[in-house]
Amino acid sequence: MWRVTVRALVVLLSAWLFGTLVWGWFQQNGDEKPRTQHTERPGRGSGDPDQSCFCHLTGVLDDCFCDVESIDVFNNFKIFPRIKKLTERDYFRYYRVNLKRPCPFWPDDGHCSIKDCHVEPCPEYSQAANSMSDMSECEQAKELGAINSTLSNQSKEAFADWARHDDAQDHFCELDDETSPDAEYVDLLLNPERFTGYKGPSAWRVWNSIYEENCFKPRSVYRPLNPLAPSRGESVCFSLSLCLEKRVFYRLISGLHSSINIHLCAEYLLDEGWGRSVWGPNVQEFRQRFDVAETKGEGTRRLKNLYFLYLIELRALYKVAPYFERAVVNLYTGNSQEDAATKELLLQVFNEIRMFPMHFDEKSMFAGHKMEAKTLKEEFRLHFKNISRIMDCVGCSKCRLWGKLQTQGLGTALKILFSEKEIKNLPEHSPSKGFQLTRQEIVALLNGFGR
C-alpha cells in the first residue's frame, strides 16, 4: 500500500512542477509579439546582455577587405593553438626588460602598485578618505602588481650564455633596454597579463597622453578617458577626413588599448581568500568598456580596431618569414634540440600565415608624393617612439611589463613593414647588415601577436 502512495505522490509532484514551468513560460512570453520577417533585430542600446557588445561586430573591417568572421575562423583553428605552444618555449617565454627606467614626462607618482612602494594612500584618494579599507586596497594593488622574478640558477647561467651569443651578432639598430644594466629577464609565464588593481587618474593620465598628445585622433571620436570627467557631447562617428596613414596609426593604438583591456577583463580578480586568489572573466567590466550603450557606440569600433591590429601584425609576420627561414638564423637557448623544435614550430606558423587570403596591403601607405610621404613616415615613427617612452610612466610593474612588451611588438611589426626592400635583399648564409632583429624584438613581436 505504501508503495502505491509514494508513486502517487511522485506523479502529483511531477505534474505540479510541469504546470508551474508552463505557467511561468506563458507569463514571460504571453505579451511578446510573434516574430516575423519584419521584426527588427536588437540594435544599439538593446537590453539583450548577450548581444549588446557583439551584435555589431561583424562584416568587413574599414581600410581593408577582410571580414571579422574570416579572421575568427583562421585565428581560432589555425594560428592561436600554434602561437600558444610557441610562446611557452624557452626562447619566447623570457623577455629582457628595464622596469626601473624613470618616467621622462612627469614626476613619478609613486603609485602603490609598484613593486617596492611604501604602503601609503593611493593618489586616487584624498587624505580625508585614507581609511583602513583604502590602505588595504593599496596593499592589495602592491601585491598584485609586483613582478614575480623567480628564476633558477640554471636559467641565470643560460641567460649569460644567451647574452654572449647575441653580442656576437651584427646589430645595426638601437638596443634600448637590452644594453641597460637595470634590464633583467622576466618569465612571462610567471607574470601573466591580468588585473592588478592599477586604476584611477594614474592610469588614465597614461592613456590621455597617448591619445591626446601623441596620436592622430579624429576629433569626432568619443573617448571619456577620465570616467569622472563630464562628457563634452562629442558626436559618435569616425572621421574619414584623416589620411590613411594617420587613420591606421590611430586604429593601431586603439586596438592595442582594446587588447590590454580585454585581458584585464578576462583575468580579473574575482575572489581572494583562504590563501588563494581566484581569477576569471569579469563580464560587467567588459561591458563597461565595450558595450554599445555604455560607450555611446564606440565599443564596437574599439573591438574592430583590435581585429585591425591583428591584421597588421599578421602582415608583418608574413613579410618577415624569409628572414627566419634562412639557415643562419638560430633561435638560440643553448639546447640544440629545443632550438630546432622552436624554429620548426615558428616555420609552421609562417606556413599557416601564407595561406590567409586577405592580408592588409601596406603598399597603399606612404604612396603619395615622395617628400610628403617621407615627412609623414618620420612623424609616424616619432609619434610611436614617444608612445613607447610613455610606457615607462605606468605605475604598476606588471602593467608596465606587458605595456612595454606589446608596444615593442607593434613597433617591431611596423619596422618590418617599412623594411620590405631590405628584407628582400637578405643574404642567405650570412648576417644581414640592412635588416636585423634583436632577441628582444623577436620575443616582443610573437608575444604581442599572441596577446
From TrEMBL:
Alphabetic keyword roster: Disulfide bond, Electron transport, Endoplasmic reticulum, FAD, Flavoprotein, Glycoprotein, Membrane, Oxidoreductase, Redox-active center, Signal, Transport
Taxonomy, superkingdom: Eukaryota
Gene Ontology CC terms: endoplasmic reticulum membrane
Pfam hit, one: ERO1
GO MF annotation terms: FAD binding; protein-disulfide reductase activity; thiol oxidase activity
Main location group: endoplasmic reticulum
Protein name: Endoplasmic reticulum oxidoreductase beta
Membrane-protein topology: Peripheral membrane protein
Gene (UniProt): ero1b
Cofactor section: FAD
Organism, as annotated: Sphaeramia orbicularis (orbiculate cardinalfish)
Residues given in the record as FAD binding sites: 194, 196, 207, 254, 257, 289
Signal peptide (UniProt feature, chain positions): 1-24
GO biological process: protein folding in endoplasmic reticulum
